[in-house]
Each structure stands twice: as structure tokens, then as C-alpha cells.
UniProtKB/TrEMBL annotation, chain A:
Protein name: Ribosome biogenesis protein NSA2 homolog
Cell compartment(s), UniProt: Nucleus, Nucleolus
Organism: Muraenolepis orangiensis
InterPro entries: NSA2_fam, Ribosomal_Se8/biogenesis_NSA2
General function of this protein: Involved in the biogenesis of the 60S ribosomal subunit. May play a part in the quality control of pre-60S particles.
Ranges where the record places region Disordered: 1-38, 64-84
Complex and partners: Component of the pre-66S ribosomal particle.
Compositional bias annotation for Basic and acidic residues: 1-21, 64-82
Domain of life (superkingdom): Eukaryota
Gene Ontology annotations of biological process type: ribosomal large subunit biogenesis; rRNA processing
Pfam families reported for this sequence: Ribosomal_S8e
Keyword set, alphabetical order: Nucleus, Ribonucleoprotein, Ribosome biogenesis, rRNA processing
Family the entry assigns: Belongs to the eukaryotic ribosomal protein eS8 family. Ribosome biogenesis protein NSA2 subfamily.
Cellular component, GO, one term: preribosome
TrEMBL record, chain B:
Taxonomic lineage from the root: Eukaryota, Metazoa, Chordata, Craniata, Vertebrata
Name of the featured protein: Notchless protein homolog 1
UniProt superkingdom: Eukaryota
CDD domains: WD40
Domain named NLE: residues: 10-67
Localization, UniProt: Nucleus, Nucleolus
Organism: Muraenolepis orangiensis (Patagonian moray cod)
Length: 260, 473
């Protein structure tokens, strides 16, 4: 037993004194008076330090009391109407000031040059090979280990045909193949179940992109003809990018947010 | 003998609906629109000559002479050429050329402005929670009406010009008397979020101007009884904010909402008739082809005088006049809805659910759409800095008016449908001549964005209000 636990040990063994709790309560209430007495009688450097501490404690106590008081009384609504009146048609829109618009344009041009795009989930945990693939052993003595099975959800196109089983290196199980995704429109806050057209980019590795592995943060292309969006020329938009926001292998469905 | 070697052409006059007028006859190719007008008036046997605009085969307008038209169309001179004639408004509205005055008084941005149906009074609502009435003859403030507790978002005159309703951001509606500036009745509370639009019942349905429809962000439309100052009906059905509500001339209410639908209700019992779907994003604005007629009620702009007068006559007379004017217009009522998905739909809401046409072309959201007073043209203002003119009947694209450097917020037609004024976020107003598609007058002078524009129904004045807290006439 460590040196300093004898009190606790005794308490565990024999319990508390019968009057322990009452004595404790009374001692605590006497403490207030003792402190006040000390504060009056102390002198010297000790006193200075003590007074400083007591002063700050008092301030803190006053603040908390005021806060509690405020909650009890009901506040009258602020009479002053806020600034920045806008007509009804601008109310639900975030007004962009002109300066911001210009700087946004410049930023977008720079991003286009760099090839980086703004996505809702910019940083995603990179999935290592051991996570995504499971080693399948083959051969007469089960020693050959060159086959891999994908353990994450994947998308294969419409006209997908497996390679001859003897030669295929990556196995994509049918149970983990998905065709539809639940896509949320960020402004409308409505969710639609849209068919996936293809996997555009998987942030972990280009190998996963080519295999069609869908993990959190993957950018997929979805068929949005259901939404009825139209370009300036009157053409109907039917494909848009969306980024996956959940771990589909855990949930059994793909949730994504549309990149507008 | 000098034989006039001018080529002649067989033309046949047709009116807009295709009915032929008289027999085909010979005219020289050099004929000008004036002469064509004389001929047409003679054929129609009108007492007063009515100005017409002529369109060869319904497409190309005859501007200088028939010869130019024929060349552009490439018509064979052997066949009969149908020429469609369109009566133009008898009166002409002069383009507003200058700012006659700058009316200060509001302490915050001016959010909404409206002329009364006869053009006698002017009211403006602003962010300083007041509604101000202005005297138009002296161009000075008349009354300041206090009563709201938050920004006054929308105002609407009753069609007889005797009451003004204003809705604020705290979801309250107040009624004001323009003559005294005092509040009539109680404040109407009931909505839970701010009021987006107010619309009165048309005069020919009820001459007392008793009922008022209001739409709000809480997704409901309420019909108020202004005499008893309480809610008459509540129309729920929209799942998101209702952006605009319009009371049609046939007793139907149209409401557009952010849930991408437009709903048609029967005003008598509050039952929903139809839901018009098709938009891909919020529906921002609605416009009816009979908007102008419903707004002015019994007032006939052709009989306007310099000093605007009140509407006279008993309730019955007034109702008759309003009904007459309503029936003169082309039936059925058409509805246009403009949306954030950059397109507009043209509907015939009384008949069917499918849109008549889809008007694409804008590259940013459509903020406001308005039919011209003669319902032949349609103007749409959009955040892509342009205004597009479309044919009011078919929805075909006619022309684009470019010139603004900022988003165009609101447009207003002149009473004769020849001129269009537009206010934008770049703080200028521009007056456009619709026939030529060119800028007629540029009206700078505001210090900041222009939020509201209105042309008085008698065509004499244009008022604009904006973020710089002053109104300009």
C-alpha cells in the first residue's frame, strides 16, 4: 500500500465516524468566520498575499451572483432594431460585398491553376492498404498470397465483367457493390437517392480510384437529372459531383453532399 | 406615260389571334407604317385613329418601310403576305429624364415603395420601422406613420387607394389611412416569422377592399379580414418560406415558395386546387398578366390628369368599371414564376398543371418578373446584370437589355408598355426603350444600392428608394 493512503484504507475497513458528516459540515461553516478573523489580524507580507487572493475571490463571487440574478429576471427585448435593412427578396441570401466578390474571383482563378478544389471535407484520414484489402491465400498449400479482397464499399460500372477468376488480383465482392447514393443538396437541405455514375477521385490513393473504392471523402459523380437543373443555354444538367460524408462499409449506405 | 415601276405586294391584315380583316390588297413596297395605319383604321372603321404596330408575318416589325422587311424575310412577292397589326396604347408616356427631387427623411434604408392606384399618393417603407407618406405635388413628406417594431418589408395599396397595408419583419401587419397617416384598426398579428408579400383582393371581386392576403417565411398564407381585423383563413401546405402571393382576377390565389412549388388556392374556401411543380430551386417571384389591371382597379390611365384624383363613384359603379377593365384584357390569366434555378415558367394556372413554356437564358437567379400593362411583353430582372424581354403570350425570347454592372433588383413598366425602368445594386436606374432595346435614359444619383422602383400608374413619375436612405423622384 502506498504511504499516503492509510486514511482511505481505514475508511474502507471501518467506515466513517458516526458523527463524521455533521462535524465536517459544522467545521466548514466555521471556516468562513475563521478566515474573516485571520484577514483582520494578519500583518506583514503574509497579509498582503492573503488579501490579494481574497480580493480576487470576492470579485469572482460577485460576478457569478450577478449572472445568476440575470437569469432569474426576464430581460425586455432590445428596442433597437438592427442595422442593415434589406428588402424581403434579399433576406435569406447572404449578401456578398463587392470587395469580397472580387477577392473570391481571384482566389478561384488561383485554385483553378493549382488544380485544387473546395470540398466540404478537405482533410480525410488516408486509408492504408491493410485496412482496405484483405489478403486471400490461394494455392494447394494456401501459401500464395497475391490476391486481395476489397473490404470497403465499391462501385463498378454498368458493363462490368470480372476478369477470369484465376487471374484476377483484386476481388470486389457483390455484397459491397452499390449503385445509388443518398445525396444532400447543401442549400435546399433536401436529400435525394441518386444513381452513381462513377468514382471521380478517392483521396487516399489513385489505385482506389481506379478500382472504384468508395470511402469517406471520395468524390463521386451522380446523376442529377431528377433535380431538374438547367444551364444557361437551356440544357439540362444530368451529372454533378458529390462528396461522400460517412463510412459506407459501417452504415450500409452511401451518404454524400452535392458540390455546387 | 410614266408607269410607276414600283413593285407591289399583296398583303392581308390579320389581328393577333389570326382573324383576317378585309380582303387582301395591293400595296406598293415602299409603304410606310403611317400609311399602313391609315389603311387599317379605315378598314376597322374606328372613329378615333388608333396607333398600330405592324409585324410582317407576325415576326419582323415594319419600321421604315415594307421593302426592308421583305428583304430580311426573303418573302416571295407572288404570295399574299399576312401582316399582323397590334393596337398600341393611345397615350404615350414620356421618358423620365431627370431627378426632380430627392426626398430625405428616412433614417435607414428604404426597402419598399409604392404609388397608390390613381398615382395620387406615394408610400415608402424602410428599415427604420416607419412608413412615410409623401405629397407628390410639393414633393415633401406628408406623414410619418410609426407603429411597426422592425423593418417594414412590404407595402401594398388597396385597389381603391383608400388604405395601405404594410408588413414588417416581426410578422405584424398594419393598415394606414393615407390622408391622415393614422393607423386604421388593430395591428394584425398571427404569422410566426416575417412577412414576405402582401396582396389585396381585386376590386371587381369585392368593392369594399376587405380582404388582404399575406405570405410569410413560416410557410403559410393568411387571408385577413381588414374590417374585423382578424385572420379569416390560413392556407398551409408549403413546407418552406412562401416568397410571393398574388390574388388573381378569377378568385384564385397563387403562392410561390422556397420548396420549389407554386400552389393555386381557391380564395372562397381556402382549398388548394393545384400544385405547379417544375422548378429546381426556390421560386422567388410571381407575376400575373392581369397585374396592372388589378392594381389600378377602376382607374383608367388614359383619363389621367396632371393632378391625380381619387376614384369617385359609389361602390357599385367602381366595381363595374373595374370588372369592365378586367374583362377587356386577354383571358385567360397567365402566370409567370421566376426562380433561383435561373429559369422561369409560364403557366396557365386556371387550366392545367403543365407549364406553357420554360424561359431559360439567364445565368444567375431571376429576382423579379413583370408583365407589361398590355400583357404582351414580359420583363425579367436577374442577378446576372441583364434584363430579358420575352413575348407575354408564348414565352419566346425577344431581347436582352444589358448595361447594368450590378445585379438588377427590380423593374417597373410605364403605363403604355413602351418604357421600362430598372434599379440595380450598382446604384443606378436605367430607362429602356423596349421597342429598340436600347437605353433611353440613365439615371445615376443614388449613393448606394437601389432596392425599390415604382412607376406611377398614370405614367407621370418614377420613384426609387435604396440603401442610401433617400427616395428619388
Amino acid at each position: 500500500m502506498p504511504q499516503n493512503e492509510h486514511i482511505e484504507l481505514a475508511r474502507k475497513r471501518h467506515g466513517y465516524r458516526l458523527d463524521h458528516h455533521e462535524r465536517k459540515r459544522k467545521k466548514e461553516s466555521r471556516e468562513v468566520h475563521l478566515r474573516a478573523h485571520k484577514s483582520k489580524k494578519m500583518i506583514g507580507l503574509k497579509a498582503k498575499l492573503f488579501h490579494k487572493q481574497r480580493h480576487s475571490e470576492k470579485i469572482q463571487m460577485k460576478k457569478t451572483l450577478k449572472m445568476h440574478e440575470q437569469r432569474k429576471t426576464k430581460q425586455k427585448n432590445d428596442d433597437k432594431t438592427p442595422e442593415g435593412a434589406v428588402p424581403a427578396y434579399l433576406l435569406d441570401r447572404e449578401g456578398q460585398s463587392r470587395a469580397k466578390v472580387l477577392s473570391n474571383m481571384i482566389k478561384q482563378k488561383r485554385k483553378e491553376k493549382a488544380g485544387k478544389w473546395e470540398v466540404p471535407l478537405p482533410k480525410v484520414r488516408a486509408q492504408g492498404e491493410t485496412e482496405v484489402f484483405k489478403v486471400i491465400k490461394t494455392g494447394k498449400r494456401q501459401k500464395k498470397a497475391w490476391k486481395r479482397m476489397v473490404t470497403k464499399v465499391c462501385f463498378v460500372g454498368d458493363g462490368f465483367t470480372r476478369k477470369p477468376p484465376k487471374y484476377e488480383r483484386f476481388i470486389r465482392p457483390m455484397g459491397l457493390r452499390f449503385k445509388k447514393a443518398h445525396v444532400t443538396h447543401p442549400e435546399l437541405k433536401a436529400t435525394f437517392c441518386l444513381p452513381i455514375l462513377g468514382v471521380k477521385k478517392n483521396p487516399s490513393s489513385p489505385l482506389y480510384t481506379s478500382l472504384g473504392v468508395i470511402t469517406k471523402g471520395t468524390v463521386v459523380e451522380v446523376n442529377v437529372s431528377e433535380l431538374g437543373l438547367v444551364t444557361q443555354g437551356g440544357k439540362v444538367i444530368w451529372g454533378k459531383y458529390a462528396q461522400v460524408t460517412n463510412n459506407p462499409e459501417n452504415d450500409g449506405c452511401i451518404n454524400a453532399v452535392l458540390l455546387v | 406615260m410614266t408607269s410607276e415601276d414600283v413593285e407591289r405586294l399583296l398583303i392581308q391584315f390579320q389581328d393577333e389571334s389570326g382573324e383576317v380583316l378585309g380582303a387582301p390588297f395591293d400595296v406598293p413596297l415602299d409603304i410606310t407604317p403611317d400609311k399602313l395605319q391609315l389603311v387599317c383604321n379605315a378598314l376597322l372603321q374606328k372613329e378615333e385613329p388608333v396607333p398600330f404596330a405592324f409585324f410582317a408575318r407576325g415576326e419582323a416589325e415594319v419600321v421604315t418601310s415594307l421593302r426592308v422587311c421583305v428583304k430580311t424575310l426573303g418573302v416571295e412577292t407572288e404570295q399574299v403576305l399576312p401582316v399582323v397589326y397590334q393596337p398600341q396604347a393611345v397615350f404615350r408616356v414620356r421618358a423620365v429624364a431627370r431627378c426632380t427631387s430627392s426626398l430625405q427623411g428616412h433614417t435607414e434604408a428604404v426597402i419598399s415603395t409604392a404609388f397608390s392606384p390613381t398615382g395620387k399618393y406615394l408610400a415608402s417603407g424602410s428599415g427604420d420601422t416607419t412608413v412615410r407618406f409623401w405629397d407628390l405635388t410639393t414633393e415633401t413628406p406628408h406623414h410619418t406613420s410609426r407603429g411597426h417594431t422592425h423593418w417594414v418589408l412590404s407595402i401594398a395599396w388597396s385597389p381603391d387607394g383608400k388604405k395601405l397595408a404594410s408588413g414588417c419583419k416581426n410578422s405584424q401587419i398594419c393598415l394606414w389611412d393615407p390622408i391622415t397617416g393614422q393607423q386604421i384598426g388593430k395591428t394584425l398579428c398571427g404569422h410566426s416569422k416575417w412577412i414576405t408579400w402582401l396582396c389585396w383582393e381585386p376590386l371587381h371581386l369585392n368593392a369594399e377592399c376587405r380582404y388582404l392576403a399575406s405570405s410569410s417565411k413560416d410557410g403559410s398564407v393568411r387571408i385577413w379580414d381588414t374590417l374585423l381585423c382578424r385572420t379569416d383563413k390560413i392556407l398551409t401546405g408549403h413546407t418552406q418560406a412562401v416568397t410571393c402571393v398574388k390574388w388573381g382576377g378569377d378568385g384564385l390565389l397563387y403562392s410561390s415558395s422556397q420548396d420549389r412549388t407554386v400552389k393555386v388556392w381557391r380564395a372562397k374556401d381556402g382549398v388548394q386546387c393545384r400544385t405547379l411543380q417544375g422548378h429546381g430551386h426556390w421560386v422567388n417571384t410571381l407575376a400575373l398578366s392581369t397585374d396592372y389591371v388589378l392594381r389600378t382597379g377602376a382607374f383608367e390611365p388614359a383619363f389621367a390628369t396632371i393632378n391625380a384624383q381619387d376614384v369617385t363613384g359609389s361602390l357599385e359603379e367602381v366595381k363595374e368599371k373595374a370588372l369592365e377593365r378586367y374583362n377587356k384584357g386577354s383571358n385567360p390569366e397567365r402566370l409567370i414564376s421566376g426562380s433561383d434555378d435561373f429559369t422561369m415558367f409560364l403557366w396557365n394556372p386556371a387550366e392545367d398543371k403543365k407549364p406553357l413554356a420554360r424561359l431559360t437564358g439567364h445565368s444567375a437567379l431571376v429576382n423579379e418578373a413583370l408583365f407589361s400593362p398590355d400583357t404582351r411583353l414580359l420583363a425579367s430582372a436577374s442577378f446576372d446584370k441583364s434584363i430579358k424581354i420575352w413575348d407575354g403570350r408564348t414565352g419566346k425570347y425577344l431581347q436582352s437589355l444589358r448595361g447594368h454592372v450590378g445585379a438588377v433588383y427590380q423593374v417597373a413598366w410605364s403605363a403604355d408598355s413602351r418604357l421600362l425602368v430598372s434599379g440595380s445594386s450598382d446604384s443606378t436606374l436605367k430607362v429602356w426603350d423596349v421597342k429598340t432595346g436600347k437605353l433611353s435614359v440613365d439615371l445615376p444619383g443614388h449613393a448606394d444600392e437601389v432596392f425599390a422602383v415604382d412607376w406611377s400608374p398614370d405614367g407621370q413619375r418614377v420613384v426609387s428608394g435604396g440603401k442610401d436612405k433617400c427616395l428619388r423622384m
